[in-house]
Structure formats: structure tokens, C-alpha cells
Amino acid sequence: MKTLLRSLLESLVNILQLVPFKVELKVPMKGRLSSHCAVIIHALTRRPIAARTPEHQNTRTREHQNTRTRGDNKLHNLNQSKGLDLTVQHHTHTITPTSIMAFYEVYSHPALVRYKTSVCTRATLFVLVVFCLTYIPPLLVAYRSQGFWLKRSWYEEQPVVQFQYQMLMVGATGTAGEFVAWSTFPNFNRLLGNNLRIPSVSVQEEDSNQDGKSDRLSLQLAVPLKAEEQIYSVQLLLIFSYQLFRMSTVVMQSMAFIQHSSSVPGSQLFVSGDLRLHQRTPLPHRGLFTTYNVSVVDGASPFASAYDLTNIIRTYQERNLTTHLSSPAPVWMVGRAVNAPFQISADIRYPLEQIRYPLHSGVSGHGGVTYRPGFWEMIKFAWIQYVSVLLVFLWLFNRIQTFVFQNQVLPTVHVPLLKAHSS
To answer: Poorest-confidence range of 22-31, 384-393, 404-413?
Structure first.
């Protein structure tokens, strides 16, 4: 009988070599039976699982199932005959991502810990005080450090300037009020009588950078004179069309005034300068502005007062937007030949304007246009200054609150991260 039991256990070892399993002995066994069971367990714990091809695996699986069925029947008969309870449990091994060895951290996040309390407690009062101290002082610091609200800024824009081929010239030929003059306004020329001198005019506008906007004006006038006439001073008024488009759309008529005098009669006047924009009050940050899109000189008027340079300059300077010739650097040349014309040469540039725009209307700008920025433009600069100071206060008071509640300086109810479940 022992020989039969031994042979059955040896067969069971051969069967169990093929399938992963677990053996549970529910009754104690003695003698050679227990030693054979120890052999079985030792074989299971040391046996590696070899890789098999799909065809080979299918064939071996069918053989294992037949063999395992016969082995189970023998064990069942053995249990009934000997009163043993020997149970064989089959199982499979599954490889999961957690079974792979992890050697570096791919992501982490802090755990949220909650602290609760009622409304009327010291903890609630502490939180309110911390909230006020976190958000209000940064606003005061940013505001008192100047520059919080956008009051003045600038940008660059190339104006669209076009010479209107309108001009008025007056030249003094003596100290007793003698003069010669000419203009592009027929009514003024009719008022001049014998003082009219019609010059030859040459005008050229250049676009140096080929951007479709004129960059320079070259002007030459040759004023004919009588043999006994000499030029001691010259006044020249030039009319332009001036336009801006980037912020406020500005369309206006402007002028450049050239003036020079000398105690020595001259033969030629050369002037070179920049046509600059000047403004007294700011413009809106958007919209169309055409208030000054009227002629500087009323050429339709038959009255001499309409062409008086004093009245023209006075009316022009009362405007908010004006242009003037900056740094004219005049050159007065002497030694005119008999019957030679008096030469006037002007080289006027249309430079890139540096546009300034203050918030308050009392600030004047020189060499640029000013306008009132809109609400969102001011907020765009204000919030950057506020947040830069706020971040420091947020970091500081966050550390203070963490210390107070973690150490229970103020009594609160700690809410666990994971809710406890009853068994």
C-alpha cells in the first residue's frame, strides 16, 4: 500500500511540474508521505517558467489538462480511501505595471489637508486678517511707489506728410518798408501790385526707404530782383498735409515757417531742418480727429488781413496740434551779382515721430503727439506691478497659515486626507 501511495505522489510531482499551483494539506501527514509533499513544494518554489511558442503551448496545454484530470481523479480516490484532504489549487501568474521595478519619480502632487472651524472663532478672525494683509498692502505699495497708473508712455510712428504746393514768400528790400512778395494765392498776388515777383519754383519729395511715405522735401525758389534791389530778410510759409493713423486718426493742415534776417544784403538763403509735431492737450486714444483739416491761409478771402503773417501765425499757434521746423540751421550767403535772382533753398525732413501720451490733459508734449489712453491700456500696466508685489505677500502669509494650523496654534478640526471606512 505504501508502494502504491509513493508511486501516486511521484506521478503527482511529474504532473505538477507542468502547471503552476499551490498545495494545501489540511491534515497532518507523517512519514514518507510528508517527505514526498515537501519534495512537491520544493519543486514548485524552484521551478522556473519557460517561454513556449504558441503551437507548442497549445499542444502541451491539452496534454497537461488530460494528465491533470487523471491526477485529480487519483488524488480524489486516495483522499476517500485514506481519509486525507489533499487539495491542489491551480493558478496563473499575471504581470502588472506595479510589479515592474520603479527607479525614478514621474510625477508628484501635494496632499490637500483641510482644517474646519465654526464662524465665530479665533481661527476665522485670523483668516480674515491674513486675507486683508495679503491683498491690500501690495496695492498700497505698488500705488505709492509711483507709476501704478499709466500716465505717460510713447510709441513711434512715421507720419504721412505731403506738401500742398501752397506757399507765401515776403522779402524785405530796404529798411523803409520796401518789400517784394509772392504766393500761390491769386487774391494775394493781386493785392501786391508792383511788389509782386514771380519766382521759379522747384519742388521734389523723396521716399528714401520705399515705404510709400515721403521722407524729405527739397525746395528751391529763384526770386527775380531789379538791379537796385537787395534782400535783407526773408519770410517763407509752406503748407503741408499731416496725418497719423496708429492710435488716433489725425488728418490736418499744418505749416512750416522759415524766417531769417541780416544787416548785410544776401544772395542766397539755405535752410535745413525737421518738420516736427507739437501738441498742447492730449487726443483720444481712438477715433477720427479732423478739427484742423482746414487751410492755414484763407486763400478765398479778398482782404489783405487774411494774408497778414502776424494774423496767420497768431491763429495757427492757438491750435492744439501744430507743426514747426525744428533746428532750421539757416545759412545766409552774400555777394549777389547784378540782375541775379535771390536763391532760397530748403531741405525739410519728415522724421519718425516719438509719440507720447499722458493720462492728464495738462501735460504738453514736444516732438510728439499725446493722447488719453483707454481703461484696458491702463489696467494692462497696473496689474503687472500689483501682481509682482502680491506674489511676495502670498508666499509669506501662506507659510504663516501653514505653521499656525499644522501646529494647532488656533484650535481647528483636522479633516483626514482619506476617509475612514467602517469594517
So the answer is: 22-31
Pairing mode, strands 249-279 and 231-244: antiparallel
Output the CA torsion sign for 189, 294, 216, 329: positive
Place of cell 492757438: 318
**Residue range 261-273, pLDDT digits in tens:** 999 999 999 999 9
Helix, strand, coil tally for the chain in percent (to 5): 35, 30, 35
Q: For residue 214, which amino acid is it?
A: S
Helix (H) / strand (E) element for 217: namely: strand 216-223
To which H or E segment does residue 73 belong?
helix 54-82
| Model pLDDT, residue 327 | 79
- Centre a 10 Å sphere on the Cβ of residue 269 and count the other Cβ atoms it contains: 24
User: What's the grid cell of residue 330?
Assistant: 539757416
Cα separation, 250 vs 64, whole angstroms: 95
Asked whether the CA dihedral 123, 124, 128, 134 is positive or negative, the reply is positive
Residue 33 φ/ψ region, left for φ over 0, alpha for ψ in the -120 to 50 degree band, beta for the rest? alpha
* Strand 342-349 versus strand 249-279 pairing type: parallel
pTM given for the model = 0.58
Contact 85, 33 (CB under 8 A): no
Q: What type of residue sits at position 299?
A: G
